[in-house]
């Protein structure tokens, strides 16, 4: 069994994001005096630093709010910051409070990394989009890919698309050596989308990137097995979201939330290659080697001589433009003058020599150019033949044919032909022309001496035999694909990239929206956490029982237990499981150890997660920390209950150690072995006589009915011995919560190691059991709410003078430890009282500190309430100075942070413990 986990950031609360304009408008409504709003707005909105302008307005707003006692702005939940993937969830260990005794446990729904810093490399990209296309088959030369994506713009998503400029994405192309990354360019265009013919498509907004790969990059090739888009002969281009460091959140984030709603409708891929050299060429005489100089039309070319050119890239693609770059050897500087004595009218210059260019497809010639000039030089570079395909060429790709490099070129299904037109290079007429000119020269000599200037008229140059030093090809091609046609059977399928695999983009629509064009551009991850469980050797339909061994007590019981959504991976979609498929769930939604029994349906294979496994997903939308950490998932689990009534009464005082049960008695056919990996649970010793009399007396009073506060408290204490204290909160003034009975419980931590001994909390599973126990004992109109106590850390600041010489820092630490023991004795001593409510007096702290043998003098005691990392000082009182619980469910506990100031030998002065150099940010100053 393999477990993968996805964890997403989801802070509980964060102030609503307000831009500078809205903040200034709010300040005007508050009526702040003495502020030049025009200049403030110009300074704020004109600043290049968005955070600076926002901070200015926030500070002024906070000052005005405090001055006029305005309430804090409403909080808004931040739904998504980043996604963290763990290929093996069990390796993401979280150690308990005692490393030597606690079993290794891991976050059930993942966790963010704790060592993230701006200087550390960003996490690998895990979400994105990809396309596999034969158009991307490019082996050499300078290769350019222009990617244009057309998005549905009916909802005005231009601002979302602009995020691509602020948050560059990562582009990679598949090669034989792996993925090759190209420097992520910024968005070059953000305009209305134009289709392959250049026509504007209504309601579509186009975004364009241009990717350039130099000659040194290896040939593009299909990805290896298991990679996105594998299983075809076409390369894959993938786009993934980059993670950027956020100085405010202090972690890497990605702009997924705003981009997740984009709907992709079309994709236009344009490719351009310059310098294709590895060609297959031949003429009428032989197969030629393009790496050496060669005669393209043979050694004695005549009209009709042919040069055959082939390459898989130019014969299997629908070309938009094709160029043959011809670098000739030994071409006369002036071909017209060179051939002037041949007295052929058509030989009037470089443009006289032409070739017919055609594409042979299945032995049928399709003419592309009737007279392509062979020697006309452009302003720069060697001569070239620039071709535009005829409008009659087939739509889409040409069908892939036999283009094996090992086969003879003329055996290919498709290749280009350059056929020499007339006039040719006059190899056949040279002897006659030379004889005629020699005869004319003899006659002229008989008439007398010949002017040297006219002697050239009788010279017949040998015919030029064309020879190419190099032949390279440039081409451009393009294809346009609609997302609806990009499924598994498409020539150009599109994919969603997931953290552990990929899936067909056309298989992931948004069923909750009305059916409109396009599909989500990015894969959807809307849950706060997801756990993937992979099962081997599943023969569906099949029933599987899985033990969820929870680290009970590790969940955050202050959060509501989330609903667990179970589903199985069927093809590229998650299909939900209902109660019929999960007939047994004793885990209460993964909040306590229990067994889950699944009735697994048949599913189709998928590439979204590693193949060869049957995948089950558990997902939570919110409050993932309300689920217990996991110690292990084990399959083929059953429960074993002790039915031996002759067991000693004290047998149930301690759990049955792990590995105590080793076999069946008698053996069961078909069961190879039995393993008990963990200790037993649920055992309860026989009731002692004193407890029996107490319980019976209480039973006679409450009669299994919860009517008074005393009834609620003693019903719970009698049924749950693991509860140490229960307090029923009395009802206040009538509110919308009238009819709700609140019970505050504190677990019994004697002889136990809770995860936080300073703030002991009952696990969520126990709270749920208490609610279920009271369900049929309360009046019909009452609603029971069982909660843990609200622990309020108390921080101290005091000045002391030590009576012993030595390391002052050592004695400061000793005093801090003893103060924590004094304020929270239950964390150190079994049986110490935990008081709900109550007060802590400063004079008792002074008395305790003064009794320390190493303390000579103590003064200036200050008490603080700690809320998160903020401290609020309790106002002093001349008669009595104390801190008390402000709510009936509060318990005052020791903070982990206390400030001890030293009184030196120079004497004590109250003024020395105030002012600059003494006051601290967080205690004396509050940063807004």
How would you characterize this protein structure?
The chain is of the alpha+beta class and 928 residues long. The chain folds into 6 domains: 66 residues, no CATH class; 187 residues, no CATH class; 201 residues, no CATH class; 107 residues, Jelly Rolls, CATH 2.60.120; 100 residues, 2-Layer Sandwich (GMP Synthetase, Chain A, domain 3); 124 residues, no CATH class. The chain has 14 helices and 46 strands. α1 packs antiparallel against α2, α1 runs parallel beside α3 and α10 packs antiparallel against α11. About 6% of the residues have low confidence.
What does the secondary structure layout of this molecule look like, with pairings?
Layout: E1 2-8, E2 14-15, H1 20-30, H2 37-45, H3 50-67, E3 75-76, E4 83-86, E5 93-94, E6 105-106, E7 128-132, E8 142-152, H4 158-161, H5 163-166, E9 169-175, E10 178-182, E11 189-194, E12 200-213, E13 236-241, E14 244-246, E15 251-253, H6 256-259, E16 263-276, E17 280-283, E18 287-288, E19 306-310, H7 312-315, E20 319-328, H8 335-338, E21 354-361, E22 364-373, E23 384-387, E24 414-420, H9 430-447, E25 468-482, E26 494-498, E27 501-504, E28 519-520, E29 529-535, E30 542-551, E31 565-570, E32 573-576, E33 584-585, E34 594-600, E35 614-620, E36 629-635, H10 689-702, H11 709-719, E37 723-729, E38 740-747, H12 764-774, E39 783-788, E40 790-802, H13 808-823, E41 839-841, H14 842-850, E42 855-867, E43 870-873, E44 882-884, E45 890-894, E46 899-902
Parallel strand pairs: 38-39, 40-45, 40-46
Antiparallel strand pairs: 1-4, 1-29, 2-3, 5-6, 7-13, 7-26, 8-12, 8-16, 9-10, 9-13, 11-12, 14-15, 16-25, 16-28, 17-18, 17-19, 19-24, 20-23, 20-25, 21-22, 21-24, 26-27, 29-35, 30-34, 30-36, 31-32, 31-35, 33-34, 37-38, 40-42, 41-44, 42-43
Helix pairs in contact: 1-2, 1-3, 10-11
């Amino acid at each position: 069994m393999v477990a993968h986990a996805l964890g997403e950031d989801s802070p509980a609360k964060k102030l609503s994001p307000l831009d500078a304009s809205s903040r200034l408008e709010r300040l005007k409504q508050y009526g702040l005096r003495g502020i030049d709003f025009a200049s403030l707005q110009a300074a704020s909105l004109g600043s290049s630093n968005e955070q600076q302008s926002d901070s200015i307005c926030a500070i002024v707003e906070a000052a005005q709010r405090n001055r006029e006692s305005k309430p804090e702005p409403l909080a808004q939940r931040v739904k998504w910051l980043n996604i963290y993937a763990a290929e093996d969830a069990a390796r993401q260990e979280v150690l308990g409070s005692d490393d030597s005794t606690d079993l290794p446990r891991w976050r059930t729904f993942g966790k963010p990394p704790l060592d993230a810093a701006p200087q550390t490399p960003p996490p690998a990209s895990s979400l994105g989009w990809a396309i596999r296309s034969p158009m991307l088959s490019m082996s050499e030369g300078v290769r350019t890919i222009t990617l244009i994506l057309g998005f549905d713009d009916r909802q005005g998503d231009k601002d979302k698309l602009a995020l691509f400029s602020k948050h560059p994405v990562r582009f990679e192309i598949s090669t034989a050596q792996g993925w090759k990354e190209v420097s992520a360019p910024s968005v070059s265009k953000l305009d209305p989308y134009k289709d392959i013919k250049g026509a504007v498509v209504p309601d579509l907004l186009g975004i364009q990137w241009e990717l350039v790969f130099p000659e040194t990059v290896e040939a593009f090739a299909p990805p290896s097995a298991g990679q996105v888009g594998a299983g075809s002969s076409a390369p894959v281009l993938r786009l993934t979201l980059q993670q950027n460091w956020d100085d405010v959140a202090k972690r890497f984030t990605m702009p997924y939330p705003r981009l997740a709603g984009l709907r992709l409708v079309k994709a236009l891929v344009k490719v351009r290659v310059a310098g294709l050299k590895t060609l297959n060429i031949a003429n009428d005489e032989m197969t030629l080697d393009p790496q050496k100089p060669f005669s393209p039309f043979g050694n004695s070319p005549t009209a009709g001589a042919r040069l055959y050119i082939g390459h898989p890239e130019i014969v299997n693609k629908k070309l938009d433009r094709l160029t043959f770059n011809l670098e000739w050897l030994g071409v006369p500087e002036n071909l017209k003058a060179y051939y002037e004595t041949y007295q052929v009218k058509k030989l009037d210059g470089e443009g006289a020599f032409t070739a017919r260019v055609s594409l042979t497809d299945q032995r049928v010639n399709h003419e592309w150019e009737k007279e392509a000039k062979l020697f006309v030089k452009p302003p720069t570079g060697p001569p070239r033949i620039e071709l535009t395909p005829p409008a009659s060429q087939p739509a889409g790709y040409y069908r892939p044919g036999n283009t094996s490099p090992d086969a003879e070129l003329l055996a290919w299904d498709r290749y280009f032909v350059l056929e020499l037109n007339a006039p040719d290079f006059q190899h056949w007429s040279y002897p006659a022309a030379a004889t005629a000119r020699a005869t004319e020269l003899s006659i002229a000599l008989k008439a007398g001496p010949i002017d040297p200037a006219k002697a050239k008229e009788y010279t017949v140059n040998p015919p030029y035999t064309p020879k190419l030093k190099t032949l390279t090809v440039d081409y451009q091609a393009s294809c346009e694909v609609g997302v609806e046609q990009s499924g598994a059977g498409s020539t150009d399928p599109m994919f969603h990239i997931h953290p552990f695999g990929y899936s067909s983009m056309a298989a992931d629509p948004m069923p909750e929206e009305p059916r409109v064009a396009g599909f989500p551009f990015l894969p959807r991850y809307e849950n706060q956490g997801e756990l993937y469980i992979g099962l081997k050797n599943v023969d569906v339909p099949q029933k599987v029982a899985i033990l969820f061994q929870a680290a009970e007590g590790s969940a955050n019981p202050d959060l509501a237990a989330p609903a667990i959504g179970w589903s199985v991976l069927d093809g590229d979609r998650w299909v939900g499981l209902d109660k019929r498929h999960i007939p047994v769930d004793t885990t209460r939604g993964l909040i306590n150890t229990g067994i889950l029994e699944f009735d697994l349906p048949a599913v189709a294979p998928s590439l979204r997660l590693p193949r060869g496994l049957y995948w089950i997903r558990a997902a939570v939308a919110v409050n993932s920390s309300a689920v217990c950490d996991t110690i292990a998932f084990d399959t083929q689990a059953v429960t074993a209950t002790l039915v031996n009534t002759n067991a000693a009464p004290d047998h149930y005082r301690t759990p049955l150690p792990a590995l105590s049960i080793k076999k069946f008695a008698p053996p069961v056919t078909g069961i190879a072995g039995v393993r008990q990996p963990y200790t037993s649970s649920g055992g309860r010793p026989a009731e002692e006589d004193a407890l029996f009399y107490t319980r019976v007396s209480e039973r006679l009073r409450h009669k299994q009915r919860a009517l008074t506060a005393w009834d609620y408290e003693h019903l719970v204490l009698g049924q749950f011995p693991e509860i140490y204290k229960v307090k029923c909160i009395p009802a206040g003034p009538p509110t919308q919560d009238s009819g709700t009975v609140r019970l505050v419980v504190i677990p019994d931590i004697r002889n136990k190691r809770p995860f936080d001994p300073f703030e002991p909390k009952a696990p969520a599973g126990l709270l749920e059991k208490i609610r279920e126990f009271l369900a049929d004992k309360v009046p019909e109109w009452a609603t029971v709410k069982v909660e843990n106590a609200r622990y309020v850390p108390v921080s101290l600041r005091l000045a002391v003078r030590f009576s012993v010489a030595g390391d002052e820092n050592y004695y400061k630490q000793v005093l801090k430890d003893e103060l924590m023991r004094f304020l929270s004795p239950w964390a150190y001593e079994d049986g110490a009282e935990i008081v709900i409510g109550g007060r802590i007096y400063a004079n008792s702290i002074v008395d305790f500190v003064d009794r320390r043998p190493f303390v000579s003098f103590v003064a200036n005691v200050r008490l603080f309430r700690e809320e998160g990392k903020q401290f609020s000082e309790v106002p002093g009182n001349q008669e009595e100075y104390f801190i008390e619980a402000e709510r009936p469910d509060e318990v005052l506990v020791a903070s982990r942070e206390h400030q001890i100031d030293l009184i030196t030998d120079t004497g004590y002065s109250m003024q020395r413990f105030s002012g600059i150099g003494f006051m601290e940010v967080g205690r004396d100053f509050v940063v807004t």
